[in-house]
Amino acid sequence: MAEIQLTQAQQAAVDNRGGSLLVSAAAGSGKTKVLVERLFAYMERERCDVDDFLIITYTKAAAAELRGKIAAELSRRVAVHPESGHLRRQLFRVYQADIKTVDAFCAAVLRENVHLLPGDGQHALTPDFRVLDEQEVQLLRERVLERVMETFYARLEAGDAEGELLAETLGAGRDDRALTALVLEQHSKIQSHPYPLAWLEQVYAQWEQTPQALADCAYGRILMTDTCRKADFWARRLLQAAEEMADCPALEKGYAAGFRDAAAQLAHLRESAADGWDAMGAAVPKFPSLRPVRGEEERKVRAKAIWDRYKAEMKKAAAPYETAERDYLDDLREMAPAMRALIRLTADFTRAYQAEKLRRNAVDFSDQEHYAIEILTQPDGAPTELARQISSRYQEIMVDEYQDTNEVQNCIFRAVSRDGQNLFTVGDVKQSIYRFRLADPTIFLEKYLAYRDAAEAEDGQPRRVLLSQNFRSRREVLESTNYVFSGIMSREMGEMDYGEDEQLHFGASYYVPRTDTAAEFHLVSVEDTEDEQFDREEVEARFAARRIRQMLDEGYPVQDADGRLRPITPEDIVILMRSPRTRLRAFTDALRRERIPCSSGEQSAFFATTEIAVLFSFLQIIDNPRQDVALLSVLRSPICGFTADRLALLAKREKQTVRDLDKNIQVLELTQGFAYAPLQREAIRKAMTENCLVLTGGPGTGKTTTVNAILQLLEHQADRVALCAPTGRAAKRLSELTGRKASTIHRLLEVDYSGGVVSFIHNDKNLLKCDVVILDEMSMVDVKLFQALIAALRYSCRIIMVGDADQLPSVGPGNILGEVIRSGLVPTVCLNEIFRQAKRSLIVENAHHIISSEPLQKGGKTDDFFFLESDGDAAQKLVCDLVTTRLPRSYGFDPVRDIQVLCPTKLGPTGTQALNVELQNLLNPEQKGKPQLQSASRVFRVGDKVMQVRNNYEIVWNRIGGEQGVGAYNGDIGIVESINMRDRSMVVRMDDRRLLYPAENLNELEIAYAITVHKSQGSEFPAVVLPVAQVPPRLCYRNLFYTGVTRARKLCIVAGRRDVVNRMMSNVRQNLRYSGLCELLKENLPPEQMAAE
Predict the structure, then answer these.
(1) Core vs surface per residue 94-133: b (16+ CB within 10 A) or e
(2) Which residues of 203-215 are buried (b: 16+ CB within 10 A; e: fewer)?
(3) Are 36 and 69 in contact (CB under 8 A)?
(4) Residues with Cβ < 8 Å from 407, sequence gap 6 or more?
(5) Residue 348 to residues 58, 123, 148, 379, 825: CA-CA distances in angstroms?
(6) CB atoms < 10 A from the CB of 663, how many?
(7) How far is CA 369 from the centre of its chain?
(8) Each residue of 327-386: pLDDT tens digit?
(9) Phi, psi dihedral angles at 23 (to 5 degrees)
């Protein structure tokens, strides 16, 4: 192939001087050759040395490749001009030239000038600083973030209302993984700003003043602009379709009027945007049915397809306008404190992380760039003396792949390039694919639009050169590319118009003319049937493999480097995918099926090997035992063994054989005086014969009756039965309902805290001496506690898990009940019949209405469920009046012991914080002579209702009657009996136990006249007041509302707004838990059951 001569545009890019030059080089336009030629033009015409230039590339591989090309070109030119001593000297200098990535440049500047950094007062970087690798960065960030979160929670204890809202919004007060992940994500993203903390301050200031109209904020503008754009498009499309119906009377009569009317409505919607959000909401188009049309089937189908797509897209676009602007603005104002708290938390983490790296004399990759900015620029952005010295070293700064730069790197380039006067940049904004690495192609685009053409620019003005001729691809490839992108690329989509300058123009004249090289587009379309379902990726992979096989078999000719044609080989073909990770296996299998050799280039990393992954997970849970995935990985590994295997063993054992089981059930029915329902009988049979059983159902479906029947039959067999529940209140309730002793799981396993770490006396080395375990409130049990229980069971022991799958999942990691049910491994009976005595309870009926999304029954004077409408401060007053006056007077309830306020959130007028202050002042006000203790923001008085808010395995209790023990658990509720002012201690009575709280443990207690719904799990109260006037959007979901209602035993009053209740009932979102237990259990299913699945 003949050597490609420079085009006029390429030559202009090589020769142009006098100011900053931007070269917009399309794909295959020879930008690397232009860069090399420009470098040699300086060396040969202006006698510059190769090391007089700073050449920045995007990757180390690109830097090495470019250095190799320069060296090869030098060798070629020295061979042509052996007499040139200047060129020969460049052969030695080329390997000393600054051809490097921006990271490498910043690191070199930093090591030479690290003394210019001020440090933090305690530590400072030294020239031998270390660059952390990705794994070190991840571990260090997690460790620092954990410390920052501890400080964050301490501020919450001290009354940080904004922080409380943030914690509630992202973690529902129970799980901060979403919050910590968001902090890490925000920290990573702000690294693309030259001054991250200053940028956070700007954003913080914006959230201090929320907008007066949605059009004044970015979110509203984007939505309104997008809606207007869609309205414009569909108005044009519908009018065009109506015009095409003119020659068809049937369609003109049936459809055209509807199309034109819809276009007019869209035009009105577009015009109403000037009047604001609510005006657009009022102008949302209607979607009437089209009139029937006879005949013209093909054209009718096309027109109907346009209409259906218009309706689908505009209904989706119009959905946000169903909510009034006021409500959105209220949401923004409500969330502004949480956003400010998130910004503060991100800034705190950024400072702490930076300080920890300084202490270790280490930096990460982004630090190198930010430290470089610190020593190269002054606060006003002007270059420092050091920057001016560096810029004097270089004749020119050349930056390759400039479209993938970001503002941090751009700031560095500007500082060392004499304010951009000797900056040469080359790239193609259309090929910017690294936004996920924080690249900002708008930097390139702004210059592309603002710079003048090089031929017109005056001296000192920035200029641009366009390289649009492609020397890589055949004409047919370029034409098809231009055809596609001219139709889909614009300022709105792709950030630039795809006009004549941006199109690819054919320049590869070395190709042999042919007629068999047209671009191919294949639409692979398959539809599932009742008998067969298709994997779309597999179908696509098989089609591609067969097409490649066909080309290979036919010997499709390709042009070689010397211009001759030869048959195609597998090495000539590449398959490009957006994400090989998800499709690689399907394509590899398809190619191998067609006997086509292939290589993906994907290699398993060191940390992906099983042994290292297990060890890494083990270290993760040592650092933080609440990490679900890491915990499950270790528990299942050979280090520990795992719950799934134990459950599988229990489930796979041969079933128990019970003689006269049906006869014994009949005897029970005669004794009780009623017959069990069919599902209850099924549950009883399975409990007696299966090795594992899940018994689930809502309130009033007979779970307790079924459990009592099972207990009687088990005792008849002389089986040793252990009854347990995850919390003390749940265990007490289980004991009351069954008339038998029940304990917490911790008490059953016997907690051992002697070594400073929670462990259990009963474990896989010291098994429980029982034949059957009945575990109530299973939805509250987390992975770690369940693993401990299963590990302590004998192989022959059976386990019966009882719970309500519709309640909130556990506070700790995992969703054991839900995943055990989903796995299909454990026999499950779901009781769904509400019994006659329960049907008379509106609490029970409405609980089932909540799950089935049916309207709530309002309730009359004699019912046990009421809904009272109220909002804001009036709702707070209503709740206080109900608790202190109306319910005690009407029903005789004790306002402290019998009535419990359950709040979805801690914040707002009807949140736990505000209500506890009001209720404490009303029910237990400050009195002269009454002892009270101040602990942080809380005030405790004798008679106060309090709750334990974290597990304490060491606190001593004395049971009334003389028994002594240790342990108070999250969610335990009690009454303050006495206060010792001298040593600042309190005695709290929790049921029949008295616990002494020294001063250092008072932070474990909270006032509990009002508690969150999450804290109420596993408990029941005679009367529940559930305020739902102001509930943050992330807490408006069905499980939370259902859990709150079902805590009431005799009376439930919902006080608040009906629209909030409707939102909660319609939102089926659940907290996602990625424990993997369901998949692990499924691995143990027998083949025939797997087939059924």
Answers:
(1) beebbbbbbbbbbbebbeebbeeeeeeeeeebeeebeebe
(2) ebebbeebbeebb
(3) yes
(4) 192, 193, 194, 440, 443
(5) 31, 18, 7, 22, 47
(6) 9
(7) 28
(8) 888 888 888 999 999 999 999 999 999 999 999 999 998 899 999 999 999 988 899 999
(9) -105, 115
What would the DSSP string read from start to end of 323-381?
S-HHHHHHHHHHHHHHHHHHHHHHHHHHHHHHHHHHHTTEE-HHHHHHHHHHHHB-TTS
User: Is residue 1088 over pLDDT 60?
Assistant: no
Instruction: Answer whether residue 210 shows pLDDT above 50.
Output: yes
CB–CB of 902/1025 below 8 Å?
yes
Can you state the angle between helices 85-93 and 31-45, rounded to 10 degrees?
130
**Digit-coded pLDDT (tens) for 812-852:** 666 777 777 877 778 888 887 765 445 567 888 888 888 77
CA dihedral sign, ordered 612, 618, 623, 627? positive
Cβ-contact 772, 714 below 8 angstroms: yes
CB 981 within 8 A of CB 931: yes
Cα distance between residue 79 and residue 539, in whole Å: 55
Nearest to 396 by CA among 417, 410, 382, 376: 417
Q: Are 276 and 214 in contact (CB under 8 A)?
A: yes
**Side-chain half-sphere exposure of 496, counting CA atoms within 13 A:** 22
Q: Which residues pair with 693 in a beta bridge?
A: 800
b/e 451-484 (16+ beta carbons within 10 angstroms → b): beebeebeeeebbbbbbbbbbebbbbbbbbbbee
Q: What is the mean pLDDT of residues 1059-1081?
A: 67
Contact predicate 889/898, CB 8 Å: no
Could you tell me whether strands 973-980 and 945-948 are parallel, antiparallel, or unpaired per DSSP bridges? antiparallel
pLDDT at 548 > cutoff 90? yes
Q: What is the mean pLDDT of residues 428-442?
A: 78
Dihedral of CA 870/874/875/880: which sign? negative
Say if residues 727 and 971 touch (Cβ distance below 8 Å).
Answer: yes
Residue 83 CA to residue 80 CA, distance in Å, equals 9
Q: What amino acid is encoded at 852 in this protein?
A: S
Q: How open is the CA angle 147-149-153, to the nearest 5 degrees?
A: 120
d(CA 496, CA 540): 32
Phi then psi dihedrals of residue 722, to 5 deg: -110, 120
Regarding predicted confidence, which is higher, 482 or 671? 482
Lowest-confidence region among 55-69, 489-503, 874-888:
489-503
> What pLDDT is attached to residue 639?
61
Q: What is the number of other CB atoms lying within 10 angstroms of the CB of residue 645? A: 16
* Contacts for 147 with CB less than 8 Å, ≥ 6 apart: 352
Which pLDDT score, from 0 to 100, does residue 837 have?
46
Map tokens 């270059």 to a residue: 383
Residue 961: Cβ within 10 Å count: 6
- In this structure, the dihedral spanned by the alpha carbons of residues 54, 58, 59 and 65, taken in order and rounded to 10 degrees, is -60
The amino acid occupying position 819 is: E
Which single residue is written with the structure tokens 């000192």? 460
Q: What is the average pLDDT score of the chain?
A: 84
Q: Which helix (DSSP H) or strand (DSSP E) does residue 236 occupy?
A: helix 218-244
pLDDT (tens digit per residue) in 567-596: 999 999 999 887 776 788 888 889 988 999
- Asked if 869 contacts 858 with a C-beta cutoff of 8 angstroms, the reply is no
Tell me the pairing of strands 952-959 and 993-997.
antiparallel
Please tell me the distance from the alpha carbon of residue 536 to that of residue 528, in angstroms, as a whole number. 10
pLDDT more than 90, % of the chain: 27
Contact 590, 541 (CB under 8 A): yes
Phi, psi of 471 (to 5 degrees): -110, 15
Strand (E) or helix (H) holding 1007? strand 1005-1007
